[in-house]
Amino acid sequence: MIINVARKELKSLFASPMGWIILSILMFGFGTLYLQGVNSYFEVMSGAVRPAERVGVTIYVGSQIYSTALFLLSVTTPMLTMRLISEERKSQTMPFLLSAPISLSEIVIGKFLGLVIFLSILVIYIFVMLSTLNIWADIDFGYLIGNSFGFILLIASFTALGIFFSSLTNQPIIAAITTFIALVSMVGLGSYFASDPSHWFNYISMTKHYQSFTRGVFDSADIIYYLLFIVTFLTLTVRRLDSDRLRG
Amino acid sequence: MNKVIFENTIEASNLTKSFGKNIAVNDVSFQLKKGEVLGFLGPNGAGKSTTMRMLTGNLAPTNGDVRICGIDIISEPKKAKALIGYLPEMRPLYKEFTVNEYLTIAARFHKVPSSKIKKALEEAKEKCGLSHMSKRLIENLSNGYQQRVGIAQAIIHNPEIVILDEPTVGLDPIQIREIRKLIRDIGQQHSVIISTHILPEVEMVCDRVQIIDNGQLVFHGSIEDLKEQRRGNKLLVGFSKAPALSRLKKIKGVDKVENAENGMFRFHFKEKYLPAEEIVNLSVKEGWGLYHINMDITSLEETFVNLTQTS
User: Fold this and answer.
1) How many of the other CB atoms lie within 10 Å of CB of A179?
2) In chain B, where are the structural domains located?
3) Which of B56, B90, B106 sits opposite A92 (nearest CB)?
4) ipTM rounded to 2 decimals
5) Which of B21, B108, B149, B160 is best to mutate for the A interface (most A CBs within 10 A)?
6) Spatial separation of the C-alpha atoms in residues A119 and A113, rounded to whole Å
7) Any idea which architecture B232-310 has in CATH?
8) Which residues of A touch B97 (CB under 8 A)?
9) pLDDT digits (tens, 9 = 90+) for B216-240
10) pTM of the shown model
11) Mean pLDDT by 10 residues, chain B (311 residues)
12) How far apart are the first and last CA of chain B?
């Protein structure tokens, strides 16, 4: 049943221009960054950088793309998550799901998975794009896999937060704005406190927990952090929908 | 699926729903028998839609319970919901999909096995006259066709019970006729509940009526029972050269005479007397110029108003 809900979400993302436009704009952006990175790599590495600080082409191009992608996704995810519940409420299609023999958690998880799968297309795209560097260089696949994995967790957390804000209101725009504020402040605060590694905020910072993945390290603490984050917000969403059913 | 035949497909007992201090539905109990079309009547805001939302598990009742073919909808919602097809007042259509896509999703959600989805789709579309619209976007369909898609969505999994909330609102007279015919057809195989505030509609499509007002059940019975309420002991008579009122009162069996609209008279007569023949005979004999004589039937509207206001 979860799969059926996810399929429906994916189908409706691709049935409207919204999904296509977001995918194509982001892919265009990443493609441009990729080209620029490859073009400037030798120039930067041969002259400006001291030999000790020189990095491989995977990290040089990859870090540019992943850090931009992190920012771009905190802007685009709200536009996609707002649809998940508040738009269904607004267009009065919620009863279609609620009167089918599907439980509330199946609905929420299905919607969540649908969007995560959609956004994973971008992760796969970036992975394939960076892999093409392997044609003329010997690239670091560990770095790519670590980043892709971390990125999917990050996207999933963004989506979980977005679906929760989406369940709070009937107005898609309000859902989008609140999710946007929440995500940008989390990402922004993360980079604000990054200079002070001992600060408590680093324990709850979304970006800080992403750092180890960028080095290709799979730290169970980071994975658990993201899983807890996702489970918390999905549970809150289910509770919220259940209270709708109880109170009317 | 449970194939045991239940006499009552829906059993609602003591359903109550309050929103804060406002009681929307107050202690409503009723049964729906197999293969019956039940009309839910009531003025706006009487609690029809709220009751339907509770029957379909969209809303939890404050008190009371609902059993669908013997299955409690609160403790076993999935099993119970699988037996119901529901079309809410606002059609839950995903307008970005085509008719086929939307109905496929509906079939999957209602656990129609993938091998049977195609057949279920064809059947539902044929019943609702949608076969030639399969590949059209729902957004581009007319109001009436969108309503049919809504109904098709509710019957796609061949449920025991079909619940339609105001299925004919906003349609033109021809579409209304077609939708009514469709509802009657569906009623052959399924138990149906429809809500409406259009009285003649109930008379045309329903076997049994339930009138709800202010959250309370004020009438329930067969259509015949409702018609019985309409037929009073009254005759509407018109004379071109009318005699005095006191003369008319003396006619055998007449209880009371009063002036009615257009210069006619309304005769109230005693139980088991029908003074029509007497009136005609007298009119001929005394030259009153009788031009109109008919049973004075209270309109359904009037019956409805009487029922909902006496409560």
Assistant:
1) 26
2) 8-227, 232-310
3) B90
4) 0.87
5) B108
6) 10
7) 2-Layer Sandwich (3.30)
8) 11-12, 15
9) 888 888 877 777 766 666 788 888 8
10) 0.85
11) 63 89 88 88 85 90 90 90 92 92 94 92 90 91 90 91 87 84 86 85 85 85 75 77 80 79 78 77 84 75 71 47
12) 42
Give the C-alpha distances (Å, rounded to integers) separating A162 from A7, A66, A73, A181, B303: 19, 21, 12, 11, 53
CATH superfamily ID and name for B8-227: P-loop containing nucleotide triphosphate hydrolases (3.40.50.300)
In the 8-state DSSP scheme, what is residue B258?
E
- The pLDDT assigned to B271 comes to 66
Q: Give residues 13 to 42 of A whose Cβ lies within 8 Å of B.
A: 15-16
Which residues lie closer than 8 Å to A243 by C-beta, 6 or more apart? none
pLDDT by residue (tens digit) across B245-298? 788 777 777 777 888 777 788 887 776 677 788 888 888 888 888 888 887 766
Joined together, the tokens standing for residue B141 give 């369909």
Q: What is the number of CB-based contacts under 8 A between chain A and chain B?
A: 76
Cα separation, A163 vs A176, whole angstroms: 10
The type of residue at B191 is S
Which residues are CB-neighbours of A71 under 8 A, at least 6 positions away?
A187
Distance from CA of B182 to the nearest CA of A (A): 21
